[in-house]
């Protein structure tokens, strides 16, 4: 694929429902009760979908953190539950939901994410992170394990989750009323995986979705530990970087990690973050479009996770002022390439565990 026909991919971060701007919840045109209002989330999701955003991204730190007397609780109440409502009101936009490999039970992760993948017709992604936040650890009643343990657990968790996803084989569901045959039981078999920290028997009683199974993402700093996770399993990498040079170097590290795991580096898409303030104050659409294009064409990004300053009008402003410029320049799609998250990201189909991920050197 040449640079000219490659299109950039946008995700929108739904941090807390108010916006990336500190104090967004106090803006006069914002309902301060938005935190508990799923209709607001649906409105912002629909606006992003109008702008052909590929996915909504929800970080997750399930804890009360920071100065909540004056700032918001910077998290959704429960991303999966909130987005299952959004899935019913949208058709193409995907959902990249953060789920902790450290604290969440792998069987629950496998079950909940694949159920929402099926119910949303193939639009789910799992951002697998090795949470090390003390407030989150305290809520689960556990100490924070050291890095080696957290990452060993992450390898086991991702492999077990993907194996569970594949345990209902693609052609297992016979559904033949006349023959009195619901499932072919030889194609719905246990996985019997036992790791050092995580184990599961299976099978998982959920059929494939239109994209097979949820797309795995990861995020964090580019430590060798995280690169081993990214290189083997991830189709998307959510990054926090500040300069174009840093992003280009980090993207190369991520791509090399995929190569080392025996994959094509184009199978993993790299997303730096950007906070946008369009028109009122910081910059017109052109300025934002120039910034995104510069990073994209310098090989510093396959796309971006965008956090508008204030969701209530910032999503529409981005969609009306920035998106048309990117489209005119031919670097952003005018229509969704497909209806699944995989199709819109441009990453390959996968079902079950990728055999390359367990044969590669760690
Ligand atoms: C952009 C970005 C987003 C992250 N999102 C989350 C998150 O939503 N939830 C979480 O528990 N950790 C999140 N993390 C933290 C990482 O998963 C990881 O725990 C943290 O970077 C500590 O690094 P270490 O585990 O390699 O020591 C995020 C990190 C980055 C850089």
UniProtKB/TrEMBL annotation:
Name the residues that span the membrane: none
Q: What is an example of a Pfam family matching this protein?
A: Bac_luciferase
From what superkingdom does this record's organism come? Bacteria
Q: Which family does it belong to?
A: Belongs to the NtaA/SnaA/DszA monooxygenase family.
* KW Endoplasmic reticulum (keyword) present: no
Q: Does the keyword Flavoprotein apply?
A: yes
Q: What is this protein called?
A: LLM class flavin-dependent oxidoreductase
Keywords carried by this UniProt record: Flavoprotein, FMN, Monooxygenase, Oxidoreductase
Chain ranges of the Luciferase-like domain:
30-279
Q: Which InterPro entries match?
A: Diverse_substr_monoxygenases, Luciferase-like_dom, Luciferase-like_sf, NTA_MOA
What species was this sequence derived from?
A: Cryptosporangium minutisporangium
Signal sequence range: none
């Amino acid at each position: 694929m040449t640079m000219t026909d490659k299109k950039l991919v946008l995700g929108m971060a739904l941090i807390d429902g108010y916006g990336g701007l500190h104090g967004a919840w106090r803006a006069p045109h914002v309902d301060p009760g938005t935190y508990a209002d799923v209709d607001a989330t649906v409105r912002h999701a629909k606006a992003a979908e109008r702008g052909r955003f590929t996915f909504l991204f929800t970080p997750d730190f399930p804890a009360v953190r920071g100065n909540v007397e004056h700032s918001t609780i910077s998290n959704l109440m429960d991303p999966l539950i909130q987005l299952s409502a959004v899935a019913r009101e949208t058709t193409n936009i995907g959902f990249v939901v953060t789920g902790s490999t450290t604290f969440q039970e792998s069987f629950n992760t496998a079950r909940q994410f694949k159920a929402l993948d099926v119910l949303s017709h193939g639009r789910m992604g799992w951002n697998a992170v090795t949470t090390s936040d003390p407030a989150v650890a305290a809520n689960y009643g556990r100490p924070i394990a050291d890095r080696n343990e957290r990452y060993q657990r992450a390898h086991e968790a991702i492999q077990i989750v993907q194996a569970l996803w594949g345990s209902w084989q693609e052609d297992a569901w016979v559904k033949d009323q006349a023959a009195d045959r619901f499932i072919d039981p030889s194609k719905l078999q246990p996985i019997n995986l036992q790791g050092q920290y995580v184990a599961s028997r299976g099978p998982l009683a959920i059929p494939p979705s239109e994209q097979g199974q949820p797309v795995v993402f990861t995020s964090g700093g580019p430590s060798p530990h995280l690169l081993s996770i990214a290189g083997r399993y991830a189709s998307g990498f959510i990054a926090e970087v500040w300069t174009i040079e840093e992003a280009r170097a980090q993207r190369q590290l991520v791509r090399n990690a995929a190569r080392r795991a025996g994959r094509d580096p184009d199978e993993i898409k790299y997303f730096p973050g950007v906070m946008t303030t369009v028109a009122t104050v910081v910059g017109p659409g052109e300025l934002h479009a120039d910034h995104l294009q510069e990073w994209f064409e310098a090989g510093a990004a396959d796309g971006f996770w965008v956090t508008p300053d204030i969701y209530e009008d910032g999503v529409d402003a981005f969609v009306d002022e920035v998106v048309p410029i990117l489209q005119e320049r031919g670097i952003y799609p005018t229509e969704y390439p497909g209806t699944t998250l995989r199709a819109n990201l441009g990453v390959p189909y996968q079902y079950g565990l990728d055999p390359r991920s367990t044969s590669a050197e760690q």
